[in-house]
Amino acid sequence: MNIFVIMKRTFDTEEKIAIKAGQVDDSGAEFIINPYDEYAIEEAIVLRDQHCGEVTVVTVGTEETEKELRTALAMGADKAILIDCEEVESMDQFSTATLLATYLKDQEVDIILGGNVAVDGGSGQVGPRVAELLGIAQVTTITKISIDGNQAIIVRDVEGMKKR
């Protein structure tokens, strides 16, 4: 099973964040894997261990993002891919999704996981946009996933209720 996880590097929300000229000043901030993407990496590793295969973490960023990719490898991911883009900080979600989809369309993919939202923006658009660009099904706000043969059984949170 080839499992891909889309990941974002974001500032650590536990750190003190400074505001300069009405904008977040992240010059002194510590950066981490977006916590929701970290959950996706953990779930991908569980699925890989249950069904054999490989976990590849993919992100758009600069060489500074390599630290978070190394963290993903230390967590147990098999591969880490950096789509190098100096303009990542000024890109919108569609541009990020387009870069990710362009890479993923040439891969043998069985399932793509990603976090629900990024803690720095909260839009939750990149994963669904990647799915749309690839022409594949997608489900958001997943709380549990299991694989049975070629079928995924998914539980998701819908307004506080669990739906299967």
From TrEMBL:
<dbReference type="InterPro" id="IPR014729">
    <property type="entry name" value="Rossmann-like_a/b/a_fold"/>
</dbReference>
<dbReference type="InterPro" id="IPR012255">
    <property type="entry name" value="ETF_b"/>
</dbReference>
<keyword id="KW-0813">Transport</keyword>
<dbReference type="GO" id="GO:0005829">
    <property type="term" value="C:cytosol"/>
</dbReference>
<dbReference type="GO" id="GO:0009055">
    <property type="term" value="F:electron transfer activity"/>
</dbReference>
<comment type="similarity">
    <text>Belongs to the ETF beta-subunit/FixA family.</text>
</comment>
<keyword id="KW-0249">Electron transport</keyword>
<dbReference type="InterPro" id="IPR014730">
    <property type="entry name" value="ETF_a/b_N"/>
</dbReference>
<feature type="domain" description="Electron transfer flavoprotein alpha/beta-subunit N-terminal">
    <location>
        <begin position="21"/>
        <end position="164"/>
    </location>
</feature>
<dbReference type="InterPro" id="IPR033948">
    <property type="entry name" value="ETF_beta_N"/>
</dbReference>
<protein>
    <recommendedName>
        <fullName>Electron transfer flavoprotein subunit beta</fullName>
    </recommendedName>
</protein>
<comment type="subunit">
    <text>Heterodimer of an alpha and a beta subunit.</text>
</comment>
<dbReference type="Pfam" id="PF01012">
    <property type="entry name" value="ETF"/>
</dbReference>
